[in-house]
Specification:
310 residues, alpha/beta, Adenine-specific Methyltransferase, domain 2, 7-stranded mixed beta sheet, 9 helices, 16% strand, globular
Length: 310
C-alpha cells in the first residue's frame, strides 16, 4: 500500500468542530473503504457534503488519492476551505488577533464579545460576495472559526433565515488558532477542487476509479433531535429520497465506489425501515457511535449510525 509519509503530529485534521463529525469512526470506516483502495490502487475522491472533512483528511494522508473534489451547498463552509487553501497565513493572523483579544477578557466580557462577533457575522452575510475571493473572505473565515471554537458544543447551526444562532460556550481556554494544523490543512488542499454546489453536480467530476462519500444532514431521530439546519436549505425526508435516487443513479450508470452515512431510525423506533427500504439492495451496516450534541446529558451516548455502500 502506498502511504504518504507524514508524522502523526504533522497530520492535517478537521479544523472545525462538527455535529456528527466522523473522526471517532475512522478506524471502523477503514474496514468499508473500497478494497482496491486498501490495496494501494490510485483513486479520485469526491465528497459533496464536506462538513468537518474527517474522512477526506484520512483518505488523502493514508491512501493513494490522486485528486480530490470537495463541495457543499453551504457557501460559509466552502469559503473557509478555499481561504485556507489560498491564504492560510493571513487567516492565521486574523485568528490570532481574535484569540488574543477574546482571552484577555473576563467571563462577562467574553460573552459580550462573542455575541458582538456573531451579530457582525450574521449582518455581513446579507450582501456578501461568496463567488470572488477577497480580503473579506479571510475576515469572514476567521470569524466562523472563532465562533465555532467558542460557541456552545462547538456547533455550526443556522436558523431558517440563514443566521448563525448557536449561543456562547463556556470554555476556559478554547484552542481558537491551531497554526500547525491550519498549515497542514492548507498543504493538503493544494491538490483539491473546492466548490459551492449541490451534490447532484458532482457528475461532471467523476473519473475512472472514483470513490464518492456522502455525509448529508442526518435524518432526525425524533422531533427534539432535529439538527439538520447547517444551512438555510432544509434537508427533510423528500431530500433524503432525492439523494437516495441520485445514489442509485450513480451506482447504475457509473463505475464508482459509493459510501454514505446517516442516522439509524431504529435507535428510536425498531420498526422504522425508512433507510432500509430506501437503500434496499445496497450494503447497509449499523455502526456504534458516541454522539454528544444533545443538550440533555442523559440523552448522549452510544447509538447506531448507518453506513451504506455499493
Amino acid at each position: 500500500m502506498k502511504l504518504i509519509k507524514i508524522k502523526d503530529n504533522n497530520k492535517a485534521k478537521p479544523f472545525l468542530k462538527w455535529a456528527g463529525g466522523k473522526t471517532q469512526l475512522l478506524e471502523t470506516f477503514r474496514q468499508y473503504y473500497p478494497k482496491s483502495l486498501l490495496k494501494g490502487e490510485q483513486f479520485n475522491y469526491i465528497e459533496p457534503f464536506i462538513g468537518g472533512g474527517a474522512v477526506f483528511f484520512d483518505l488523502v494522508q493514508n491512501y493513494n488519492i490522486r485528486h480530490s473534489h470537495l463541495s457543499d451547498i453551504n457557501p460559509e463552509i466552502v469559503i473557509v476551505y478555499k481561504t485556507i487553501q489560498k491564504s492560510v497565513e493571513s487567516l492565521i493572523e486574523q485568528l490570532t488577533e481574535l484569540s488574543e483579544e477574546y482571552k484577555s477578557l473576563n467571563v462577562e466580557q467574553k460573552k459580550h464579545f462573542f455575541y458582538l462577533k456573531r451579530d457582525i457575522y450574521n449582518l455581513e452575510r446579507i450582501d456578501f460576495n461568496y463567488i470572488d475571493f477577497s480580503e473579506a473572505w479571510i475576515k469572514r473565515s476567521a470569524l466562523l472559526i472563532f465562533l465555532n471554537k467558542t460557541c456552545f458544543n462547538g456547533l455550526f447551526r443556522t436558523n431558517k433565515k440563514g443566521g448563525f444562532n448557536v449561543p456562547h460556550g463556556k470554555y476556559k481556554n478554547p484552542n481558537i488558532v491551531d497554526k500547525n494544523n491550519l498549515l497542514n490543512v492548507s498543504n493538503i488542499l493544494q491538490n483539491t477542487d473546492i466548490k459551492i454546489a449541490d451534490y447532484s453536480q458532482i457528475i461532471q467530476h467523476i473519473k475512472n476509479n472514483s470513490f464518492i462519500y456522502f455525509d448529508p444532514p442526518y435524518r432526525p431521530l425524533n422531533q427534539t433531535s432535529n439538527f439538520n439546519s447547517y444551512s438555510k436549505m432544509m434537508f427533510d425526508d423528500n431530500e433524503q429520497k432525492r439523494l437516495a435516487n441520485f445514489y442509485k443513479q450513480l451506482n447504475n450508470n457509473y463505475s464508482v465506489d459509493l459510501m454514505l452515512s446517516n442516522s439509524d431510525p431504529k435507535n428510536e423506533n425498531p420498526n422504522d425501515n425508512f433507510f432500509d427500504e430506501l437503500y434496499q439492495g445496497f450494503n447497509i451496516y449499523r455502526i456504534p457511535a458516541t454522539r454528544m450534541i444533545n443538550s440533555k446529558g442523559n440523552k448522549r451516548g452510544i447509538i447506531n449510525e448507518l453506513l451504506i455502500t455499493n
